[in-house]
Design brief:
By secondary structure, this protein is α+β, with helices and mostly antiparallel strands. The protein has 12 helices and 19 strands. It has 3 domains: 71 residues, 2-Layer Sandwich (Dna Ligase, domain 1); 138 residues, ATP-grasp fold, B domain (D-amino Acid Aminotransferase, Chain A, domain 1), CATH 3.30.470; 181 residues, 3-Layer(aba) Sandwich (Rossmann fold), CATH 3.40.50. Helix 7 runs antiparallel to helix 9. A hairpin with a 2-residue loop joins strand 10 and strand 11. The two termini are 46 Å apart.
Amino acid sequence: MKLYEYEVKKIFDTMKIPIPKQYGVIHSAEELDHVPMNFPLMLKSMVLVGGRGKAGGIKKAQSMAEAKSLVKTLFNLKIKGLPVESILLEEAVDDLGACYIGTTMDPATFNNVVMVSASGGVDIEQVAREKPESIVKREIVDNTKTLPKKIAQELASALSNNLDKKIDTKKRNELQDNLADIISKVYETYQRCDARLCEVNPLLLTSKGVIAADAKLVLDDNALFRQNDLLQMLGISEKRHDVAERTKNELRAQAAGFPYIDLLPENFKKDPKKLYVGLVPGGAGYGIFSIDEVATIGKRFFHDRIVPVNFMDSGGGPTQNRVAEMFHLLMDYPAVDLIITSRFGGISSCDIFIRGLIKAVVERHEKGLRMIPIYGRMVGTDLPSARTFLEKEKHEHADALKDVHIVIGNQRIMADVIREGIQKTCESKGWKL
């Protein structure tokens, strides 16, 4: 769960990480007249995405007249498709240099990692691409709750030795101690809050010392039950669903109650020479396998012209309506040319699965909605009743189900089903393979 910058700075303040003076958060231009403040003033759009500065979402005002004008502009702004609904007002501080401090977990080792860079104020991903040598990392093997002093000092030394020449060399020792303290507190905040990411970018070096000009904290959803006091302090009464960077499909799936991720950008353009495959697998692990298998088969047999478009997890025991919505979503998605599905019925029922699939297809046929071929296999729990129902429906709704091809049982491996579905769909397009 992502937090807004002003929420993170409230946490930083309790952890004694220096932040600019906070004047408040406004939700309309009219509120500006009722907030005591000094100038110069920073106006910061509150949206849960990065790149606010590049998008024009952060402004500096020298007077009330300028602030009012800028606030109106910001409230009319959209950043990565998100409207600006609130603005943080805070003190503007001088800038003698900037650096980056962050803590996260290495997904390969599951160890916590502390990173610092003298290239502050720039996207850390950009720094990693263009100047990877400027990022200094330390892995915390034993997952300590506090950062070992030696590591904090090593990282602080790496920062102070590479900071802007404008920093007075006589103050570098004092600065290094301050940096070590901030690095330790950022790590401690990360641990106390059960965070997935805690970062300061930039940490500004000012005439008054170091100040966290920006702050980011992403909480681990699985540990929110331990963070009731924190959430109460922030005034968050329920889990905040992060809709910041989700696509329309992902929002639709969230509302329907199943995990879904688009693998392609929302506004991508289809390559007419490629076939785009939607996936309705039986579970998360099988979902990942399906993506890999479709991509591998496409590369091996179809000249790398096959593109898997989504990850999906039906979860254990989905309802018939939820299964139907999975197929509705992909058929409504213009990118999808073919749906590959599979049901290995362990916890889930093959009978409910096939009823949900057929429900979606018959409804779409009756309403004249977009239809695309479906190829798949099902095996496991309730397979006999699922087979009986499928055979009955194919007889009663032969026209609606003519492009639904479901293999029953283990007589064919899933890789062959995928290959056949791709082959037949390519042939229907008149492609020479």
